[in-house]
Amino acid sequence: MDDLDRKILSELQDDASQSLDDIARKVGSSKTPVWNRIRKLREAGVITRQTVLLDPDALGLEACFFVLIRTSAHEAGWQQKFLASVRARPEVLEAHRLAGDIDYILKVRVANARAYDTFYQALIAEVNIFNVTALLSMEEIKATTVLQV
């Protein structure tokens, strides 16, 4: 990957809906080489997909909770059931397995505390969890999908 690839990726992360002509102009190249590089970056797995970012507040999803999960069960069957349950829940935007005292952290976006409780009740009905702590985000200070390239 060279500087031109990095410039192209930066432009795509900023706004993937830009025309090839606009991207080429901004990165100092022409349309065909830019298209070929984008194609190669897709084939190499650097670009995995294109999507649209939505404003959760505009959609009425004003509450963001970080859910800390501790489990006393670490066998493969429990983990498979838990992961399937988490992956199936549309409220879960991110899920991470952690090192340390907390086993998993989930980022959950819902309309309000009542909607979170509905999510919580459904989750614990599906999977036996030792301890759940929910932290309400009071303010989003930084959120980005942009990777430094």
UniProtKB/TrEMBL annotation:
SMART domains: HTH_ASNC. GO terms for molecular function: sequence-specific DNA binding. Gene3D superfamilies: 3.30.70.920, Winged helix-like DNA-binding domain superfamily/Winged helix DNA-binding domain. Keywords: DNA-binding, Transcription, Transcription regulation. One of its GO terms (biological process) is regulation of DNA-templated transcription. Residues 1-62 form the HTH asnC-type domain. This is Lrp/AsnC family transcriptional regulator. The lineage of its organism: Bacteria, Pseudomonadati, Pseudomonadota, Alphaproteobacteria, Rhodobacterales.
